[in-house]
Amino acid sequence: MQRFDVIISGGGLVGLTLAIALSRHGLATAVVDPADPQAVLAPGFDGRVASIGSASWKMFEALGIAPRLKGLCCPIDRIWVSEGLSGGALDFEPDAEDGALGFMVENRELRRALDATATQEANLTRFQPDKAVSVVRDLDGVRMILASGTDIFASLHVAAEGRNSPTRETAGIGIARWEYRQRALVTAINHEHVHDNVAYEIFYPDGPFALLPMLPGTRSAIVWTVPEKHATAMLKLGEIAWLHEAKKRMGDFLGEISLAAPMSSYPLGFHRAARITDTRLALVGDAAHGIHPIAGQGVNLGYRDVAALCEVLVEGMRIGLQPGDAQLLDRYQRWRALDAMSVTVIMDGLVRLFDVPGRAASAIRRVGLSSVQRLKPLKTMFMAEARGESGPRPRLLLGEMV
Q: Is residue 283 part of a domain?
């Protein structure tokens, strides 16, 4: 039997980042993931990107991940939010000394950077591709038998398996869940004019249209929300027709456009676990909460989980507690509950606010956007939320090791 401090189920963007963070702080960590590394690290660009807020980026710098992304990510220097192309607008442009609001990076490049960093971690062991066939959690710890026959044991089990987490389900943790009856169309475009590192979120009654800056300066990712009933037809459109529809929503300010990646889609919904801990168990990332991609906060909410859980475990072990100690899990639950609740409620509220049809609703939204634009304290608060720098932050999100 191999012994560890923590076993993490799921080696995706959030799970592997947590593993690196714990390993860097001296915790013996195991990651179990069924995905084939060759498929996960495939070189082709699939159009999927991650928006890394400035607070999450500070954690990447502290953990040695950021240097591996040098020259591969595009800073977000400004965010433009508008009601259609001619309605009220919010222009988030921080002072130069405050730095970028965040960074856009291709998912494949982020996965490769995490993989390269994890490979160098002496306290990190990965079982991949492999999966658990038996998991027993009790007051003494967590024992896991893998499909490969490997027998591993730890004080704490962390579920980072995504929104359909089997560990969460087996633990009997209920979730609040609903579907938006919308689908996100995801791809990337090349365009004639440079984007100047500006991210655009253009709201329409049938869903937001997001343009996210990428490298080089003439390429942007698109996350286009459409009603579920129209998604199949949109996916069947030929390239010329699809680009024509896209230009109707984004206008001509980027000039001529062409597709730069395959198109994919996924249904949009909301879910939130009733609790994020159980006996010898903690949930992180989409296993704990899933939100609309309306403001790119999904993965960053997961990174807030990573930073908080890492700090709780490291500080607890320094005073002689085990990682799975109920006191530490209770502290993690309390720390993350309010922040996760506020972010998920705000994002869901925005989706529903901009989903209300009619001229009166549109006029109210335009007045609201214009009012926030004029009120600097309120605008500053929204910018801090976009950065992931609101509320009490774990030290990793300040760029400091615990």
A: yes
What are the structure tokens assigned to 42, written together?
């495939």
pLDDT in tens, 125-139: 999 999 999 999 999
Q: Rounded to two decimals, what is the model's pTM?
A: 0.90
Mean of the pLDDT values across residues 155-175? 96
Q: Comparing 120-124, 164-168, 252-256, 352-356, which segment has the lowest mean pLDDT? A: 352-356
Domain assignment of residue 341, yes or no: yes
Order of strands across the sheet that contains 49-53: 49-53, 102-106, 73-76
Is 90 exceeded by the pLDDT of residue 181?
no
Vertex 293: Cα angle to 289 and 202 (nearest 5): 155
Among 100, 38, 25, smallest CA distance to 66 is for 100
> Are 323 and 27 in contact, with CB atoms under 8 Å apart?
yes
How far is 302 from 359, CA to CA, in rounded Å? 37
User: How sure is the predictor about 392, in pLDDT bands with cuts at 50, 70 and 90?
Assistant: confident
CATH code of the domain in which 154 resides = 3.50.50.60
If one counts the domains in the chain, the total is: 1
192 within some domain: no
**292 is written with which tokens?**
């609309």
Give the DSSP letter string of 267-280: EEEEEEES-SEETT
DSSP one-letter code for 98: G
* Domain of residue 154, residue span: 2-176+269-391
CB 55 within 8 A of CB 388: yes
Q: Over the stretch 16-53, which tens digit does the pLDDT of each residue have? A: 999 999 999 999 999 999 998 877 777 777 778 999 99
Residues paired with 266 in a beta bridge: 184
User: Within 13 Å, how many C-alpha atoms sit on residue 1's CB side?
Assistant: 9
Q: Do the domain assignments include residue 257?
A: no
Q: CA-to-CA distance for 4 and 307, rounded, in angstroms?
A: 20
